[in-house]
Specification:
34% of the residues lie in helices and 20% in strands. The N and C termini lie far apart (82 Å). The strands form 2 sheets. The protein has an 8-stranded mixed β-sheet, sandwiched between helices. The protein has one domain: Rossmann fold.
Length: 349
């Protein structure tokens, strides 16, 4: 019997893996972030490391992970500023990632939210929700509402020796998020039976929502905006138009297009749709070099026409998700500006 060179066998194996993956052909891919195969198998390369809740003592923030629902694996990482005395406001925060990637344990979110808690003298509850395409929308919205209902139960059973509830002002709550997380915060608040209607708001007591912070909200639409069509992105940009389209194909219900209201809140006329909704002050953070810039500006203008309490800031010279993914000096400066602006928004309500 002949023998086969081990090196030749290895090369053959590599070629098989490359050309004929055991899960079939790749049907959707965002380079370095996610691959979806024909048999619906999903791969997410570990492009951003996940870290524990440990923090340096000098930051003045303590952090721990808490399970919200063990059956769906929803959990949250809490950040509590320990430099201030008295009751602290609570930000319920949703991470970005196009609904398809990301984690509350990602190192970039851990660093950003720990610093935000310190800067704003607040408690931050960073929710880890289910991801598409395994759990398409509205799973992330459902998880967000489940997190709020869990929060209500914590408020009702407050214990003086609980490590975070004893410091929390449950009547001073803000919803916040960046990119897809901002979309989640918005869609939670506009869903029937949420905080918006008087009866629903009463049912959420003792929780009291005071405002919403939307950072580079991830919205879309079939018609392209000028910034989507013409804003040139660097190869290292956190969000390209092709990636945005792929995220929406994976996240939206089967058969939907980008004018689905979860994606495009302006598709049916936000001025009319939100007549009785969004009774809370809203802050929208926009990045000048983000392809979503024009869509965010249109969203703000529509809220303003509808008579909503909305303010917005445009961060010059930076792109999508700069506050978590860019290490440039300009991004560091703009991140500090953003944190200060969020602090002013929270303390001014």
């Amino acid at each position: 019997m002949g023998t086969r060179n081990v090196k030749d066998g290895l090369n053959l194996s590599l070629q098989i893996d490359k050309d004929c993956h055991q899960h079939g052909a790749v049907t959707e891919e965002i380079d370095g972030l996610i691959k979806v195969y024909k048999d619906e198998h999903v791969e997410r390369p570990k492009i951003v490391p996940c870290v524990t809740s440990d923090l340096p003592h000098e930051l003045g923030v303590t952090s721990r992970d808490v399970v919200i629902d063990k059956f769906t694996n929803i959990w949250a990482r809490f950040y509590v500023s320990i430099k201030c005395h008295g009751k602290l406001p609570l930000l319920v925060y949703f991470h970005g990632g196009g609904f398809c990637v990301g984690s509350a344990a990602w190192s970039c979110y851990h660093d950003f939210l720990a610093r935000l808690a310190a800067e704003t003298s607040s408690i931050i509850m960073s929710v880890n929700y289910r991801l598409a395409p395994e759990s398409p929308l509205p799973a992330a919205y459902d998880d967000g509402i489940k997190a709020l209902m869990w929060l209500k139960q914590q408020a009702l059973s407050v214990s003086a020796d609980n490590w975070w509830t004893s410091q929390c002002n449950f009547s001073n709550i803000f919803l916040a998020g960046d990119s897809a997380g901002a979309n989640i915060a918005y869609n939670i608040i506009t869903r029937p039976g949420s905080f918006n209607a008087g009866q629903a708001a009463a049912a959420m007591k003792p929780l009291s929502l005071r405002g919403i912070v939307l950072i580079q909200p991830f919205f879309g639409g079939e018609a392209r905006t000028n910034s989507e069509k013409y804003l040139v992105q660097s190869p290292r940009s956190a969000l390209s138009l092709a990636a945005s389209d792929t995220y929406w194909r994976l996240a939206l219900p089967c058969g939907s297009n980008r004018d689905h209201p979860w994606c495009n809140p302006l598709a049916k006329g936000l001025d009319v749709e939100l007549e009785d909704l969004l009774r809370f002050p809203i802050m929208v953070c926009i990045s000048e070099m983000d392809i979503l810039k024009d869509r965010s500006l249109e969203f703000v203008a529509s809220l303003d026409r509808a008579g909503k309490m909305v303010e917005h800031v445009v961060h010059k010279g930076v792109g999508h998700a700069f506050q978590i993914l860019s290490k440039s000096q300009l991004s560091r400066t703009r991140t500090l500006e953003m944190m200060s602006q969020i602090k002013d928004f929270i303390s001014g309500i």
